[in-house]
């Protein structure tokens, strides 16, 4: 391809909102342009690399027997109402009303579409397992899209969905997907960190996220220095830093022989530090109690404190009734933070957040700052496991300017529920090996998870098993964002001057720069390009009437792996030669022009083979 | 590919709404499924053929130097407001409001997106010409989607847009596109009829539509039996069936010596036939006068009858002021129908239609049925050319139960405007050669046209020419619908049993049917499949445990070009053989199994070469 016959508008300047490297370089190299907030157009150069990512994903999906289909992007709302996500998804779901007043969704993912297709076609266990995928346009109505295609509103995602007769079959496909994902990222030249993940609004459990390290990552990863274990902080557990907690009965027996509960007036205490000083204690001895508001709680609260007066919504199509709004007191050791994702999972809630001050006052009967589990009766107390291991603890007394000391779990309060609600932090110990954990910021590129029966049950998918019995298939779900995968390749492979493409994703593999584009140099440049193209190598020939310096600068920016320079001096050598420079390497070297095409082809094939291995 | 490892849910029955062959067969062959009204999912088999159409289009676009890009599907409304189409497009445009209240469009075409990209990048004439294209999802909010993917709401279109410094350059690209389109359809095995077309709501002129004959076609084509000329009835002209009309002055001079205008009472006349009888005349002598209501008229009406009282909207970004609503009297020879598309073009209106009866009464001062051009003063009279050639005519007198006889053009009335407004019909004479014209129904698969300056002017695109002068580029626009191209291939290539794919579009090229899938037959079938696949042939091996009859029936339905049957009898011959049947041909023949793969590969390559030539 001749440079003058393509459309690569390179730039020296970038817009002010391009704060990360991939956004800046994709913009400067003429790969993308912005058409609206979070809406990007890929220009010819960007699209070439984009299609390579797409093709790698397609090959790996086909390689494990997944079948490509193409459902519509615009989907009738009925399907989303059937799954319950029409209500659950909130404002990030882009909803459209057409001229006839029917509701539609611009798909952000396609559990509903795939499951609706399966529902109408599935009859027998013989059709299972079945793994289908699409590589298609998606939309998520981000309030604040940024970082270029890394977090756009419209994007392309490969999403696969699998259907199985049993969990063993699901696990087999899940494992195959995990291997395929590792191959995809390796082939793209990406270092990914696979971590255990919370499955978010998707429902289900058993999931793995494929993360890349990123300073602008919106995920915090907890990683073990020792064994390499990785988890999303939203789901990370750690080794307890306390002795195993006693059973409730054991705690009650032990408490009988300890100091009785004592109310202490703390009128002059203004800050938490003053409290420690006043009580001569520390955060580790304090039972911190936070009031949470939770939405759409699917847990049965009929026997919980305050549960009988809660409004309960009618069951949805999947038979689950939810409480639109409920409040909980969460008790946790004073030096530890509550993990709200874990809390939402325990409560089976669509959303949790700290309650408003007015609600705290109403529910605890005391000003903010004096909540505690002792005597709290209007709402259920959820205790983190740490609390059950505490001895001789301090907590708020539900009265202004008063605390309880010598609080004993089992004697002075019994939580309605006990669970792991702890936010793991750097310095905690690995749950697997006890090694020290550390934190990294990461961006999610892919996610595989076992969805379970959520959609197949809600949308009433049935098949007949070997015995003619009607059964519901179990489902898995597997996504990769193409745009952010491409952007992440640039994040990992660049220097100050531009992109340094891995051979597999490079828009072109060889950039030919004739120092001047005329006479013999022009002829030789064209011959070399032709030879390379005949060998299947993708070549960009810079035929612009520009100074060599401009061409070199653009060449560095574009990041094409091999740069071949044709100049008078080297062509006049005894062995007429060209100068070859591998992008990203310091030094260039001479290659005789006779055989240069063959030599370059060999080098490129070697690099491709290494990445695709 | 093994049949049991793909997902091809064939059916005997079809839904009631599948009334055309391609819809029925795509559904029965498991190529598509419906997810909503006008919303279809391509299943694996359908997607394979779809991708082949896509690839042919991509190759031909690249072949003429067009560059592929990928703009978003969801586009900010500002771009559509800048072009004026936000108002002009009406309800077929799907509009979305996002969570922040911003307006967006689900693209039906992309003049705005491409032009916005160009606007920001174009600086110099050296960048021109530039032809860009995308193959991307589109949406048109059809009120009544039907005929499967032939007229869906969501569809995929290749749309290209070119930008030029002058008309000569535009014409060169326009011609190249015309040749590329002919190649695309030939490679798909389609017989298309290229016809002159009206350019509809797109604006501009100089356009060609690529039609396929279809009983459900929504276009009427006018074709010449003699010279092969073709035109869309919306734009078709014909050779006049009357002597060249006189000039206004000549008509006035001639009229002075003819019978004077005479008012005739026609009280008992109820029907148009009775009128002819009563007046002893015929339709050809009658000046039919119809009152039309036109929307968004861009023609200057300031000097027209009634023009000064019209509401005039402020000029849009392109500087054109329009009249939101205006009325016109159209006078035409009684035996001819008005072509409303021609009328809209003459008036530069976004829409025209017959006025309501109340408006007719208000504007003509007479009941419906007595309109005529003589004495009509409240609105402009637009005369078809036929009227200017009429002598001694009859027309309505703008009074109940009265007509005028001996009406003479130029003496008794002078139209505000004269134009060709005639609807050409079968039997009229070809404008080029005088041959007899006939009609066909057709479906549009592609459309190329010279858009002119409509978008580049409205969206203020500028570049500097050789002399440093700022200029606006001229634009061309070129679309192909992929879904309906694929459906049209089936419409043209099928029989009662199923599809008969052209080799280029076939989802697989060889279907191998082992009569039973076990023992030696199974081994040989797998070896044959392997050999063919190694030669690059796409093979479907029917490994299902089904009766041969079921496999043959499905084979006919799927339409894979070559069917190879492996059975005990032929494999036990002295020269062990397989039975080969070309889909669509009556007879099968035996081929020695040794060398069968090579022979089939040769046949397939020959067919591919023939179509791709």
General description of the model:
2 copies of one chain form a homodimer. With 613 residues, chain A is of the alpha+beta class. Chain A folds into 3 domains: 13-189 and 450-490, 2-Layer Sandwich (BirA Bifunctional Protein, domain 2), CATH 3.30.930; 248-419, YbaK protein (Alpha-Beta Complex); 502-612, Anticodon-binding domain (Rossmann fold). In chain A, 28% of the residues lie in helices and 27% in strands. The first copy, chain A, contains 17 helices and 31 strands. In chain A, the strands form 8 sheets. In chain A, strands 3, 7, 8, 9, 10, 11, 12, 21 and 24 form a 9-stranded mixed beta sheet that branches. In chain A, strand 5 (94-97) and strand 6 form a beta hairpin. Chain A is elongated. Mean pLDDT of chain A is 93; it is low at 199-204.
Outline:
Chain A is of the alpha+beta class and 613 residues long. Chain A is 28% helix and 27% strand. The first copy, chain A, has three domains: 13-189 and 450-490, Bira Bifunctional Protein, Domain 2 (BirA Bifunctional Protein, domain 2); 248-419, YbaK protein (Alpha-Beta Complex), CATH 3.90.960.10; 502-612, Anticodon-binding domain (Rossmann fold, 3-Layer(aba) Sandwich), CATH 3.40.50.
């Amino acid at each position: 391809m001749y440079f003058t016959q393509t459309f690569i508008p390179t730039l020296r300047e970038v817009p002010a909102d391009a704060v990360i490297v991939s956004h800046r370089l994709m913009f400067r190299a003429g790969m993308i342009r912005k058409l609206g907030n979070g809406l990007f157009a890929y220009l010819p150069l960007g699209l070439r690399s984009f299609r390579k990512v797409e093709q790698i994903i397609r090959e790996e999906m086909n390689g494990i027997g997944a079948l490509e289909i193409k459902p519509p992007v615009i989907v009738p709302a009925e399907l989303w109402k059937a799954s319950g996500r029409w209500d659950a998804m909130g404002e990030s779901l882009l909803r459209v009303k057409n001229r006839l007043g029917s509701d539609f969704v611009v798909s952000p993912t396609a559990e509903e579409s795939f499951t609706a297709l399966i529902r109408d076609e599935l009859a027998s266990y013989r059709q299972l397992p079945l793994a289908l995928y699409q590589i298609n346009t998606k939309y998520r109505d981000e309030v604040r899209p940024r970082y270029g295609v890394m977090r756009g509103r419209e994007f392309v995602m490969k999403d696969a969905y699998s259907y199985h007769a049993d969990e063993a079959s699901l696990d087999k496909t899940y494992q195959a997907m995990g291997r395929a994902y590792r191959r995809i990222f390796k082939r793209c030249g990406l270092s990914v960190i696979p971590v255990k993940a919370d499955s978010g609004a998707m429902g289900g459990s058993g999931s793995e996220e494929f993360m890349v390290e990123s300073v602008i990552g919106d995920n915090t990863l907890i990683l073990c220095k020792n064994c390499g274990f990785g988890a999303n902080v939203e789901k990370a557990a750690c080794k307890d830093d306390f002795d195993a907690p006693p059973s409730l009965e054991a705690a009650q027996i032990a408490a009988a022989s300890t100091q009785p509960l004592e109310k202490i007036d703390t009128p002059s205490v203004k800050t938490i530090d003053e409290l420690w000083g006043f009580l001569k204690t520390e955060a580790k001895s304090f039972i911190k109690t936070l009031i949470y508001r939770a939405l759409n709680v699917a847990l049965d609260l009929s026997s919980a404190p305050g549960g009988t007066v809660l409004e309960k919504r009618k069951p949805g199509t999947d038979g689950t009734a939810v409480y639109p709004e409920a409040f909980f007191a969460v008790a946790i050791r004073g030096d530890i933070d509550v993990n709200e994702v874990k809390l939402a999972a325990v409560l089976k809630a669509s959303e949790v957040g700290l309650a408003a001050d007015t609600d705290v006052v109403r529910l605890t009967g005391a000003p903010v700052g004096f909540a505690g589990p002792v005597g709290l009766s209007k709402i259920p107390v959820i205790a983190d496991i740490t609390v059950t291991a505490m001895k001789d603890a301090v907590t708020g007394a539900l009265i202004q300017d008063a605390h309880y000391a010598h609080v004993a779990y089992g004697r002075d309060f019994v939580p309605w529920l006990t669970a792991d609600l702890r936010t793991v932090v750097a310095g905690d110990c690995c749950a697997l090996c006890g090694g020290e954990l550390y934190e990294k910021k990461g961006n999610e590129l892919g996610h595989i998870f076992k969805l379970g029966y959520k959609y197949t049950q809600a949308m009433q998918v049935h098949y007949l098993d070997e015995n003619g019995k009607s059964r519901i298939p179990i489902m898995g779900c597997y996504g990769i964002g193409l745009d952010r995968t491409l952007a992440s390749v640039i994040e990992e492979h660049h220097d100050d001057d531009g992109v340094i493409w891995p051979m597999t994703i490079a828009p072109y593999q060889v950039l030919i720069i004739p120092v001047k584009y005329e006479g013999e140099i022009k002829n030789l440049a064209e011959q070399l390009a032709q030879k390379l193209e005949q060998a299947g190598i993708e070549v960009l020939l810079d035929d612009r009437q520009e100074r060599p310096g401009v061409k070199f600068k653009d060449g560095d920016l574009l990041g094409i792996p091999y740069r071949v320079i044709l100049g008078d001096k080297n062509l006049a050598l005894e062995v007429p030669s060209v100068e070859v420079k591998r992008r990203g390497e310091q030094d260039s070297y001479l290659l005789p022009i006779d055989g240069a095409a063959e030599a370059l082809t060999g080098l490129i094939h070697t690099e491709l083979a290494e990445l695709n291995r």
